[in-house]
Amino acid sequence: MTPADQSVEVARICRLAAVIPVLVTKDAAGAAGLAAALIAGGLPALEVTLRTPAALEAIRRMADVPGGIVGAGTLLTPADVKAAKAAGARFGVSPGVTPQLLDACAEAELPLLPGAATASEIMALLEAGYTVQKFFPAEQAGGVAYLKSIGAPIPQVSFCPTGGITLTKARDYLSLPNILCVGGSWVAPKDAVARGDWAAITALAAEAASLRS
Fold first, then answer.
1. pLDDT digits (tens, 9 = 90+) for 162-201
2. What are the angstrom distances between the C-alpha of 160 and each of 41, 85, 94, 191?
3. C-alpha dihedral (67, 101, 173, 211), degrees to nearest 10
4. Residues 134, 139, 190, 207: which is the catalytic one?
5. Which pTM value belongs to this model?
6. In sequence order, which ranges of 15-54 are alpha helices (DSSP H)?
7. What distance in Å separates the CA atoms of residue 62 and residue 37, rounded to the nearest whole number?
8. Among this protein's residues, is 134 annotated catalytic?
9. Per-residue pLDDT tens for 115-133?
């Protein structure tokens, strides 16, 4: 799968909703319920970060929930890519890139949203064929002002900024022409997930989905 093909698919996924929930799952038992709640609220694309032992099982369970597209975040190594694809992930997200990671995604045919934070990193990925990129860590790396500025010299790249974004800040990002969507964890608060309060999460998802009307 070429980088260009990956970017086409990632762009399609990013355009499904204004927000991609970034999920850190400590217990896979509630994974299906969480996915169903977010999908019901209008957020079908879900990123499960590979930061916990439960993450791969959570991906497996979420992959069976109708209407969703589950991806794996925090891909760092080729082994992560293989495990994520085997668990049912349909796209991958990385905080940065290495040649080995890019090769692994191409071989596994796993569309990648690769991370970049500087003009040089963005240009290198563009040169490799990736026209859709994750801007991370968004707030710490310059936020809305940076992405607005980078859009003038590098208009060929569209972004999904992630890192420190809230509902209020999301509106500012989404107002930029080079932003397809944002990644955010606020739609799945830890306390609501722990309680299994799916109604509250659906309400937060619906509020986030309404950012793109």
1. 999 999 999 999 999 999 999 999 999 999 999 999 999 9
2. 20, 21, 12, 26
3. 0
4. 134
5. 0.97
6. 31-40
7. 11
8. yes
9. 999 999 999 999 999 999 9
Any idea what the CATH number is for the domain that residue 114 is in? 3.20.20.70
Q: How confident is the model at residue 213 (pLDDT cuts 50, 70, 90)?
A: low
Q: Over the range 78-104, which residues count as b (16 or more CB within 10 Å of their CB) and which as e? A: bebbebbbebbbbbbbbbebeeebbeb
Give the max Cα distance, the chain.
Answer: 47
Catalytic residue among 9, 47, 85, 169: 47
For the record, the structure tokens of 10 come out as 């990632």
For the chain, how many structural domains are there in total? 1
State the Cα–Cα distance between residues 114 and 104, nearest whole angstrom.
Answer: 13
Count of CB atoms within 10 A of residue 145's CB?
9
Question: Residue 110 belongs to what domain range?
Answer: 3-209
Residue type at position 132: V
Q: Which residues of 113-133 are buried (b: 16+ CB within 10 A; e: fewer)?
A: bbbbbeeebbbebbeeebbbb
Catalytic status, residue 207? no
Backbone torsions φ then ψ of 71, nearest 5 degrees: -120, 165
Cα–Cα distance between 92 and 18 in angstroms, integer?
18
Backbone angles phi, psi at 49, to 5 degrees: -80, 140
Q: Sign of the C-alpha dihedral, residues 150, 151, 154, 159?
A: positive
Spell out the alpha helix ranges (H) of 88-212. 99-108, 119-128, 143-150, 167-174, 190-195, 198-209
